[in-house]
Amino acid sequence: MKGLNNKILEVDLNHEKFNEVHIPEELLLDYIGGRGLGVKLLSDKLPPNLNPLAPENLLIFATGPFGGTIVPTNGRFSLVTKSPLTNGLFYSNSGGSFGVVMKRCGYDGILIQGALKEPGYFVIEDGKTEIKGASRLWGYDTEKTLDDLKKIEGNRINSLMIGPAGENLIKIAAIMNDAARAFGRGGVGAVMGSKNLKAIVVKGGDSKVDIHNRDLLKKYVKVAQDKIKVVPITRSSLPKFGTSALVNVINILGMFPINNFQKGSDERATQVSGEEINRKLTQEHEGCYACPIRCGRLTKAGDMKGKGPEYESVWALGPNIGIYDLIMVTQANYLCNKYGIDTISCGGSIACAMELQEKGLIKDSSLKFGNESILKELVKKIALKEDIGVQIGEGSRILSKNYNSEEVAMQVKGLELPAYDPRGAIGHALGYATSNRGGCHLTGYMASLEIFAAPKKIDRFTMAGKPDLLVLKQNQKAIEDSLVICAFAGWALGLDYYARFMKAITGIDYDVINLLEIGERIYNLERLFNIREGLNKKDDSLPPRFIKEPLKEGISKDHIVPLERMLEQYYYVRGWDKDGVPKPELLEKLKIKRI
Ligand code: SF4
Fold first, then answer.
1. Lesser CB count within 10 Å: N end or C end of the chain?
2. Which CATH class is domain 234-411?
3. Which CATH number does 422-589 carry?
């Protein structure tokens, strides 16, 4: 297929061998690239019921037909694996330039299996590949790892790496991307650690993307860029404040979770808002490859420097654990990046521990909401598996189970929830419950409709139409992650733009309908994978707090999530049976074999 190299690099770490593998055109037509390609390869190749930290687990990185072209925000790329946190299929998405350079080196993806006998990393440079020892780097944080890799491999590299958290197989460990971006969620860093793989380096590469009609693509891209320049969110809000612009908005709506989702707003939240970050901490703005939005920020907090914090991080390490000191929160965010820990799951699991302490179940009195003096030390203890950090690093589901109090774990399928109280937007809540990767806001971002009226405002507390819209959003995101394009481009663009880009790049007559059908195929294959791994209807759930306990104050007061009724409707719209299993006729329509 044009737009792709039509091949991936398979890396067998057991035997330290590399193998170029051709990807058949039919597979690319059905699954495109990025997340879709990764999901198909994982489903085909991974044996059932495998321990995610066993060497046989696969780590699959993949870009799509937009990668390395002139399409705006094409620097994103995907990761697919089996998660040690959820025990199900996991997809993740990160930015920067790694995916583009990987494609320039001739590969649409890298599929890694097995484990090295000793810590190591591998390098891909043009057509050459090599595995090198990393015993010296083992134990280094991600910044020091990047510095050392640059000394060895040169400054013009892009790299993925783990920090001590991944090495120690912490279930909330991230894979860091050039030390500051992340494949954050799902404990994917532990999968890389279980392979003794400290880093992956790409450099050089001169492979050009084969494009069907460059002039047509230029014309379509010009229209898209003009649109990005006029839509307020992509023109000014994201570039100026980054995602943290959401703090004040979500707090005003009474759905900004405070103290482990016990409250929905706090007047001190403004102290950690995007506006404050911009005023006090931001030094420079930056962006991923080919991105006109540039939502990233280089910041300085006290005597530390780094990137971010993003909205979810500032919340998770701040108000959700009762902390409103911007410097402290930002420094904790930097530390998570250095140790290679997912900020959302880190904050979510600490919040769970604090509520357990509040209930008298954890005896350590320092572990109380608002105690900022322990935060940085706690992040370190999680990464290094020390004291209470051992339990917190397992994630909130296992932590709470240890104390027979699973109701205080704010998670779905084992993945800690992000920074929107589901009682404040019930379509968004249904998205959390049904996301194939667990408690995730990105899989079908209903907040865009329920909160931001983009493209149209719908009431955030009513059920009508929510399951149908969510299915559409989830299928749409699956295709965006497969093309690959940044979710934030979606504030200005949409599938009609992406279909035109695909036509110009591949010469194939894509339209919105067939792109959505590919998204639906991907979503259903993920569902089948999870069913095969033992997940079922009971995992499409929410913590009981959101179903039984209304918020007591703020403008989302008195609302709960009518999950069961929405779920029934959702299964119907999806073409699944009453137990949430895709029906045979749906699988036939989507050309999916039961796995
Ligand atoms: S909008 Fe932000 S995250 Fe998306 S591609 Fe641009 S810089 Fe990267």
1. C
2. mainly alpha
3. 1.10.599.10
